[in-house]
Amino acid sequence: MPYFVVHEHHAKQLHFDLRLEKDGVLKSWAVPKGPSMNPQDKRLAIMVEDHPLDYGDFEGDIPEGQYGAGKVYIWDKGEYFTVKGSIEEGHWEIFLKGKILMGRFVLLKIKGKVDQWLLIKKKDELADYEFKLHLRGN
């Protein structure tokens, strides 16, 4: 089963990177406000360049002067599977099995916007309407 990882990235601006193993790479989205288990939260997710699979285990410092300089933590990691749709269709529903993120989510491409998507938790038995985002780093 393919895996996913969410990096908490303390760069110039704190953001989270959602990475999904697909076609031999990690398809990646920067999520400025971080993912949520609350279906009422619609999170902007900006698709960025693919990353190599071994980047999924990366945790540490990206040195000053390099792109994305700052501290990176693994915020969540687990397996996922496709429920329906695809990246190519612009509507990809997935089921995440992580320690924090669990259940059905959808990545929905925003029409007319290059590389802009929404990450939305679907209403299911694992939804958490009181979800609060907790940081690993400070």
Would you mind describing this structure in some detail?
The protein is mainly beta. It has one domain (3-121). The protein has no helices and nine strands. It has strands spanning 3-10, 14-22, 25-31, 42-51, 60-62, 70-86, 91-97, 102-109, 116-121. It has an eight-stranded antiparallel barrel with strand order 1-2-3-4-9-8-7-6. The chain is globular and about 40 Å long.
Task: Summarize it.
The chain has 138 residues and is an all-beta fold. It is built from no helices and 9 strands. It has one domain (3-121).
What's the structural blueprint in terms of helices and strands?
Layout: E1 3-10, E2 14-22, E3 25-31, E4 42-51, E5 60-62, E6 70-86, E7 91-97, E8 102-109, E9 116-121
Low-confidence segments, given as residue ranges, are: none
Proportion of strand residues: over 45%
Total domain modules: 1
> Could you give the distance between the termini?
32 Å
Characteristics:
single chain; 138 residues; eight-stranded antiparallel β-barrel; 54% strand
